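User: Quick sanity check before I run a bigger batch. Here is a single chain. Can you write out its predicted 3D structure?
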Amino acid sequence: MPHPRLLVIFGTRPEAVKMAPVVAALRTYPEVTTRVLVTGQHRELLDSALAAFGIVPDVDLNLMRDGQALDQSLAAMLVAIGTAIDRERPDRVVVHGDTLTTLAATLAAHLRRVPVAHVEAGLRSGDLSAPWPEEGSRRVTGVIADLHFAPTTAAAAALRGENVRAETVHMTGNTVADALRMMQARIAGDPAMAAGADAVLARFGGKRIVTVTAHRRENQGAALGQIADALLRLAGRGDLGIVVPLHPNPAVAAILSDKAGACGAIALVPALDYPAFVRLMAASTLVLTDSGGVQEEAPALGVPVLVLRDVTERPEAVAAGGARLVGTATARIVAEASKLLDDPAAYAAMAVARHCYGDGHAAERIAAILVRETAR
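Assistant: Done. Predicted structure follows.
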């Protein structure tokens, strides 16, 4: 195969952030044609991440529409991605993680007998309802893919435990470490890149910053209301500025705005671009999140994380002491946050930079394996 063709497919901001280093690494191989297809699963958030890393997609399907049910979104992506694969004729499709885009791309490639490589493979919560529907998407992809890039030893072990052939599993580290390192370097060279965080940080000058992200489908409804109640109780302390970058999902924004929108100590702000969000995390005393990526990024910055979930497919930071599962009950969130905010020793024990997810060179390893295996 003299000139292998790779089609890298993703659709959300977290995928764009984590796949940007892979695309950059692949494009150092002149003998390989690397094409990028995006579905637009997170339209605005995706676009800001692409811009931050200087990626211009070769194919933009722009599929997502407001109010689509999950099955409608999956069906639209499956057909459109399949058509694109027919046109692009790749030797391999490369997907990431656990999104609907990942599932659709994997199935579309499989139905055309095109091999699939899976970046960030092997993460398991053990609960199909959390994260939902992502846990199922990741497991299906793990069955179909023929190359598995596991971010941690636990993820690699999980794949082998599911009878994935050992020679197809490669423990590479997580590309989130690569992306964070790249972005920190860019911000250092051009601080204006992250200016989107400055106004909200200035608003709370002198106060400790608590950053909160909450959007998971399984937390929408009563659980999100309990999270909002916890934020209100923490805001009542008077010494905190609580910053909540809002996910574009209107159901999330509606609950948080209704519960906490009138509180002066809580800033509900539009979703930040990635450089601004990195600056906000780095300036935070504490992060509360149900996001997967933030569980990886904040510990690397030495910022303690309270995970607003009962289970996580990313247990490494919890085991290392940089993150703690607290669920969504109001009293538990307030108690755990207060302990860290009021007990310097407890805080210091968690506020240590932990590089649980890689050394910042995962993309180089992934690219080398992809080029080698696809060229066979």
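The CA atoms of residues 55 and 338 lie 41 Å apart.

User: Great, the batch can go ahead then.
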